[in-house]
Amino acid sequence: MTAFFTSLVFVVLAEMGDKTQLLAMAFATRYHWQTVMWGVFAATVFNHLLAVVVGNYLTQLVPMNIVQIAAAVSFIGFGLWTIRGDELNGEDKNTKFTPFWTVTIAFFMAEMGDKTQLATVALAAQFHTVIPVWAGTTIGMLIADAIGIIIGIVLGKKIPEQAVKWFAAIIFILFGVWGLYEALPAAFLTWPVLVAGFVGLSALIWVLARTGGKD
């Protein structure tokens, strides 16, 4: 039980203000809270199982910075998708993923290389056990993200639809940009590259806002 409670408390504290909690808040402004919770649960179960069982081995096959770059790019994609307005404007039938799978994929990618995933690997190694750590970290994530969902529901009732959409999109894009900044080699982070990236992303956001953001 020590491994279980230690893992639970550690993750709840670590997730306060973390990107996955903020993502739960953002998704709660767009989808039903039950859908968000089930998506968080599914993503966490598989992600933390991966961390406990094969986390160390995975980093030997795929460099963690590559995983982090892929996750960051996916977040920018989610942000641009949100601006396009597919799910938010009731066009669910025209999208590849249902809200459940959208949440699940986003959270799974968010946890790849995140501190809670790495902490799960460390906790499993420290306590030399799988199930208690897996259960503790999973429940801890649900508790922390439930707090974010409650906040998101409150915000969603008080903020106009367009503001809700941009709030979610900006969170996704900011996390994606910050993830790229942290994961990319320093040689790529030159001023010309940063300026070009900023201008290109801003132009893409402007185009999507003009073509799809007002549908």
Please explain how this structure is put together.
The chain is mainly alpha-helical. The chain has one domain. Helix content is 80%, strand content 0%. Helix 1 runs antiparallel to helix 6, helix 2 packs antiparallel against helix 8 and helix 3 packs parallel to helix 5. About 5% of the residues have low confidence.
Short key terms for the protein model shown above:
215 residues, 9 helices, mainly alpha, 80% helix
Describe the secondary-structure layout.
Layout: H1 2-15, H2 19-28, H3 33-61, H4 64-84, H5 99-111, H6 115-127, H7 131-158, H8 161-183, H9 191-211
In short:
By secondary structure, the protein is mainly α. It has one domain. The protein has nine helices and no strands.
Task: Report how far the terminal alpha carbons are from each other.
Answer: 52 Å
For the biggest sheet, the summary is: none
How would you state the average pLDDT, rounded? 78
Number of structural units classed as domains: 1
Q: What is the string of SSEs from the N terminus onward? A: HHHHHHHHH
Q: Tell me the number of helical segments per DSSP (H or I, 4 or more residues long).
A: 9
Q: Approximately what portion of the residues adopt beta-strand conformation? A: under 5%
What is the general shape?
A: globular
Uncertain spans: 86-95
Radius of gyration, in Å, reads: 18 Å
How would you classify the helix and strand content by structural class? mainly alpha
Helix content: over 70%
* Number of distinct beta strands: 0
